[in-house]
């Protein structure tokens, strides 16, 4: 049941310290600076020359997060919408790894892409929450995120666990290909181990409710981010539109000036996510929106330069750039939750949506 919580969504947002701890349990070894992903045999990914991630919706945002982080680790990768895969899939061969990211393991679009990739000779892995799901049975290998059941239609805790598992998988792929761990792994692992506590801090001290209240009744809500902040901006906007029924849009920060800035007014609050990926550029982009009257809500650590100019601040603890977006995402989940709650929306069952989409 929902226990002390009014909604499953809120319960599941608050479960993230636990669900993330479960995801990484036994899979990292910070003392020895190693990933211990026993889900795969030694050297499994040594021959992988490129990686394609396929997924839909929130899982696609996690996939994009994983793909960008893999590119940052020097491995060629792309994230593709599973529902576009059948019409324009990039070629695959036996050195291509195709990773199907699906919470339920039953999304028809994602299963089609997985089957197509497998039929064409790719090595396939699914990153899923459900043991025994179709994706887990059909992929060559499965990596389980161990988030526990997610009842709210809006995906929350499964997103953070997917993103973390994809980050780990990416580091493992990079290590297998090089025969040694990536250089930045040593600083990443302790930060990863600290994530459950950091998320707890965000949950305990968040100003999301007052910010959702302050910007209630706006015309549209924009979310911007760069690098790993970009998928987080997309996810912030998807969650917002899904449960509030208000218009929201996520953009790569640098894209604002290439068109969307025309929409910006004093009635379009801009949530800017700062993850340490060229933040000074994102800050300039955000200021351009603010100059046009948009309220600027900075999602960043307390000592960040964005705090000086922002109209409001959602604080996240300092951590690795590889993980900061996940703390920012928790703040944005809370903003959406509170905005929907003020509007009295049926948060756990938004209109027109189903938890598992089994048709193409
Ligand atoms: C949004 C949401 C959907 C799912 C999408 C894929 O909150 O839940 O966008 O992420 O339908 O579902 P799975 O991950 O089960 O393949």
Report mean pLDDT, rounded to a whole number: 96
Determine Rg (CA atoms, Å). Answer: 19 Å
- Going by helix content, strand content and strand pairing, the class is alpha/beta
Helix content: 40-55%
Topology order in helix (H) and strand (E) letters = HHEEEHEHEHEHEHHHEHEEHEHEH
Q: Give the low-confidence spans.
A: none
Proportion of strand residues:
15-25%
Keywords: Aminotransferase, Cytoplasm, Glutamine amidotransferase, Repeat, Transferase
Organism: Natronococcus pandeyae
Domain SIS: 41-180, 211-350
Subunit structure: Homodimer.
Keywords:
360 residues, alpha/beta, 5-stranded parallel beta sheet, 13 helices, 12 strands, 45% helix, 15% strand, globular, binds fructose -6-phosphate, transferase, aminotransferase, repeat, cytoplasm, carbohydrate derivative binding
How do the helices and strands line up, and which of them pair or pack?
Layout: H1 8-14, H2 16-24, E1 28-29, E2 34-35, E3 50-55, H3 57-72, E4 77-81, H4 82-88, E5 96-102, H5 108-119, E6 123-128, H6 134-138, E7 141-144, H7 157-178, H8 185-205, H9 208-214, E8 221-225, H10 229-244, E9 248-252, E10 270-273, H11 279-291, E11 296-300, H12 306-309, E12 312-315, H13 321-342
Parallel strand pairs: 3-4, 3-5, 5-6, 6-7, 8-9, 8-10, 10-11, 11-12
Antiparallel strand pairs: 1-2
The protein binds fructose -6-phosphate.
GO cellular component, one term: cytoplasm
Keywords: Aminotransferase, Cytoplasm, Glutamine amidotransferase, Repeat, Transferase
Main location: cytoplasm
């Amino acid at each position: 049941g929902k226990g002390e919580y009014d909604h499953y969504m809120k319960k599941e947002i608050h479960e993230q310290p636990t669900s993330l701890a479960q995801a990484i349990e036994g899979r990292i070894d910070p003392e020895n600076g190693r990933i211990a992903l026993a889900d795969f045999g030694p050297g499994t990914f040594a021959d992988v020359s490129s990686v394609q991630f396929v997924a839909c919706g929130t899982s696609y945002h996690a996939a994009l997060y994983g793909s960008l982080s893999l590119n940052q680790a020097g491995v060629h990768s792309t994230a593709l919408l599973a529902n576009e895969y059948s019409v324009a899939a990039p070629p695959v061969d036996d050195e291509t790894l195709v990773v199907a990211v699906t919470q339920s393991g039953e999304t028809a679009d994602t299963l089609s892409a997985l089957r197509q990739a497998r039929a064409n000779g790719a090595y396939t892995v699914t990153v899923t929450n459900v043991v025994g799901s179709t994706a887990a049975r059909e992929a060559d290998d499965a990596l389980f995120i161990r988030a526990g059941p997610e009842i709210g239609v809006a995906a929350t805790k499964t997103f953070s666990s997917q993103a973390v598992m994809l980050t780990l998988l990416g580091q493992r792929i990079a290590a297998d290909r090089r025969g040694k761990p990536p250089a930045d792994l040593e600083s990443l692992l302790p930060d990863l181990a600290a994530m459950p506590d950091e998320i707890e801090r965000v949950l305990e001290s968040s100003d999301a409710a007052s910010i959702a209240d302050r910007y209630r009744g706006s015309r549209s809500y924009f979310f911007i981010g760069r690098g790993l902040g970009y998928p987080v901006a997309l996810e912030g906007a998807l969650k917002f539109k899904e449960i509030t029924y208000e218009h929201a849009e996520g953009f790569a920060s640098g894209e604002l000036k290439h068109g969307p800035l025309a929409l910006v007014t004093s009635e379009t609050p801009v949530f800017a996510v700062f993850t340490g990926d060229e933040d000074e550029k994102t800050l300039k982009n955000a200021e351009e929106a603010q100059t046009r009257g948009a309220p600027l809500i900075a999602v960043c650590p307390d000592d960040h330069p964005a705090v000086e100019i922002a109209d409001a601040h959602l604080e996240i603890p300092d951590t690795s750039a590889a993980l900061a977006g996940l703390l920012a995402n928790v703040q944005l989940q809370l903003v959406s939750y509170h905005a929907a709650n003020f509007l009295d929306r049926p948060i756990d069952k938004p209109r027109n949506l189903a938890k598992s989409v089994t048709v193409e």
